[in-house]
Amino acid sequence: MNKTSEKFLQQLLEAPSPSGFEQPAAKVFRDYVKKDVDQLITDAHGNTITVLNPKAKFKFMLAGHIDEIGLMVTHIDKDGYIYTAQVGGMDPALLIGQRVKILTEKGNVFGVIGRKAIHHMTPDERGKGVKMDNIWVDIGADSKEDAQKRVEIGDPMVIDVPYRRMTDDKIVSRAMDDKAGAFIVAEVMRRLAKKKKDLKISVIGVATVQEELGLRGAITSSYSVNPDAGIAIDVGFASDHPDTDKKKLGDLKLGEGPNLHRGANINPVLEKALLKTAKKHKIPYQITAEARATGTDANAIQLCRGGAAATLISIPNRYMHTPVEMISISDMDNIIKLIVAYITEHPANRDYRI
């Protein structure tokens, strides 16, 4: 990954974008790709739709969701402490002791999630699980009135943690799910722009919104795009760390290549064609079985209008829906290579019917 790409990735990951409030990250995405694509379209939902070769008849859609999990202000008590609800899903225990960034009309407000000191806990309290009802955010306010000068009910917030490179190949951040996928969409579109004379199809790269609330942005954008085929790029559960069950998750490791899938959500013609491309270009890959719908934007693409050929490519991810999601740079690079090769070699039409 070159320095320009990594700088974009860091900016994308650190830009707050809880579901429904994706604007800061969407702006980073749009600013990065707008000079390279033929069309950049936004909609009322917040999706960013980028297009190459728009006049071609066959439409191939790429989707990576740009929203992340987060919190929202639901109540401010008389002493100025803030109570929240989750945007998306996370383990409440992960929130204790975290710093947060609250997104307000006046700018960012910083706070911390506190808890009673362990010295004052009874043995029963120490053994109890953490619940959202017992979590509060402290912004240093002295009263409800003081807090209300800075935050409002409905303001969203994210955990305030930075991007970090752990090794030459491994990086860690909140919101890898799925800004890493949106990053790949942007990088693919920029690389394909340099090969536009070779494209025989129209390629539509979408940074979708509100995936964490039910694939909502992919539903609306795929309806607008009306693709013949598409690939969703999302993160997948790595099983190469303690306390995982490979019998349930499969054997998925960081650094071993793109995670391809087999199952009802995956068009078998597209699945076999991608495998053929990976083998031809000597791109490593891993396979995961999907006995049900994948729970990703691939669902929405597959069910768009009268149906489209869809598949999912996942980035192996440790510690999903935590502030320390970890992925491999080489896995992302290989996913980009695979998709660029597949689309560059795609004929003007392909029959994906089964």
Automatic annotation (TrEMBL):
CDD domains: M42_Frv. GO terms for biological process: proteolysis. The active site is at E211. Pfam families: Peptidase_M42. One of its GO terms (molecular function) is metal ion binding. The keyword NAD does not apply. Zn(2+) 2 binds at D177, E212, H321. Belongs to the peptidase M42 family. This is Putative aminopeptidase YsdC. The lineage of its organism: Bacteria, Pseudomonadati, Planctomycetota, Phycisphaerae, Sedimentisphaerales.
